[in-house]
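Handoff note, outgoing to incoming analyst
You'll be picking up this chain. Sequence as last confirmed:
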Amino acid sequence: MKSLSDINATEVCVHGGQPTGVFRQLTNALARSRHRPTVRELQAIYRDLRKAVVTIKRELATDTLFDTRPFLELVIVATGFARQRIASLRDS
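Most recent structure output, in case you need it:
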């Protein structure tokens, strides 16, 4: 299995296979970004998305989010949750 070993000088294998580890590494990767979410903000978005996924799958009668329409819906919903949870995104 191939994987990326480096994103902006951030080692991607250090997340420990857990969402919080991924969020911690995302905050490191976004450290120089205008939008710098906290781990807590990312955790809240993740919780929101987990609930929304059930609805998306039910409404589209699918078991996957990786078809075109479910993925698009997920992106739209995630963007909305991010704007609600991350103050710097509300202005953009």
